[in-house]
Design a protein that fits this description.
By secondary structure, this protein is mostly beta strands. The protein is built from one helix and eight strands. An eight-stranded antiparallel barrel has the order 1-2-3-4-5-6-7-8. The longest helix has 15 residues. The N and C termini lie far apart (58 Å). The relative contact order is 0.15.
Length: 160
Amino acid sequence: MSRATVALAALVCAGACKKSLPPPRFCDQDLSGVWVNSSDAHFAYRLTDKGETVNGQFFARESDGGEWTSQPDEAIRIELRRGPEALEGVMKESGQSPSGRTCPIDFKLQVISCESATLQVVSETRVSVGDDCMRARSEDGGLAKTTLVEYRWERPDGGR
């Protein structure tokens, strides 16, 4: 084989073996760390960013930034998935059915705007469940209405 043929084969192989770039991801920054609710800094969220997923937990804060010594009995967990156009998932906690049964409830959570030190988050804050712990249904058979609230989460250190 001539040198020209070997060089040409190497170029063809290099072009064919080239990896394509990963698709763009919404909010493609490391969200790990503490975020606080801008309306009430006593509500805080500790996030761990693993690329395609962002997991976290709610905790209550003192005014000086330390954690309250008495936290909720059950941890409120956050599970988000990152896609090309959204960062969304659920906040998991417990609620009660009409008969008083304790039920696991997934409250929908979506990050709609993402900057280095602030996140705009839309979350379900009220979800009705039946005695079977399933989401309640409206008269037409669809899911019963939920309450959505928009929050602004900020890094307490301003993103530094």
